[in-house]
Specification:
There is one protein chain. By secondary structure, the protein is of the alpha+beta class. Helices cover 22% and strands 34% of the residues. It has helices at residues 2-15, 19-38; strands spanning 43-44, 47-52, 57-58, 66-67, 74-77, 84-88, 91-92, 98-101, 108-112, 118-129, 138-145. The strands form three sheets. A five-stranded mixed sheet has the order 2-11-10-5-8, with no helix packed on it. Strands 3-9-6-7 form a four-stranded antiparallel sheet, with no helix packed on it. A two-stranded antiparallel sheet has the order 1-4.
Length: 153
């Protein structure tokens, strides 16, 4: 930071003879000094959703919580659930990382495996970006409520 200050002082000092360039130099110097310290990545926050046994759960953007000053642009699924399947716009997600636009999270579905249910039954990790680097992972925990199945003869 000290080196940056010396560069700013030198810029201002050398530009004083040309008043039109002083303002441009000051703006550029201000942006250079503010940007590195104010830039922060978004971080995914853990959340729990509740699905119902044998029924596909449709995610929405409000299910994916995050902290940070920016607006989310992209999401990356980092791990896959083990007791169910994720689908992106009807296509099974078979490998990670799997990137998708934050605005399209309403096309993400979770289909629990047949006849499994329980609290904390499943989970997957994800992270979010505002167009810059991805931040820290968050875990989406999936609780699955059981249903009474019809008796089998």
């Amino acid at each position: 930071m000290l080196n940056l200050r010396k560069q700013i002082d030198r810029l201002i000092h050398t530009r004083l003879a040309k008043p039109g360039l002083v303002m441009r130099s000051l703006v550029l110097a201000s942006v250079m000094s503010i940007a590195p310290s104010s830039y922060a990545v978004l971080n995914a926050k853990p959340n729990t959703i509740t699905a119902t046994e044998d029924i596909v759960f449709d995610f929405s953007t409000t299910d994916f919580l995050f902290t940070g000053p920016g607006l989310p642009v992209a999401v990356e699924i980092r791990t896959l659930p083990t007791q169910g399947t994720l689908f992106d716009n009807g296509t099974k997600i078979t490998s990670v990382p799997h990137a998708m636009a934050f605005a399209s999270l309403n096309t993400l579905d979770y289909d629990p495996n047949d006849d499994v249910f329980g609290t904390g039954l499943d989970s997957f990790d994800w992270r979010v970006s505002d167009g810059g680097p991805f931040g820290g992972d968050g875990t989406m925990t999936v609780d699955v409520d059981g249903v009474n199945d019809d008796p089998v003869a």
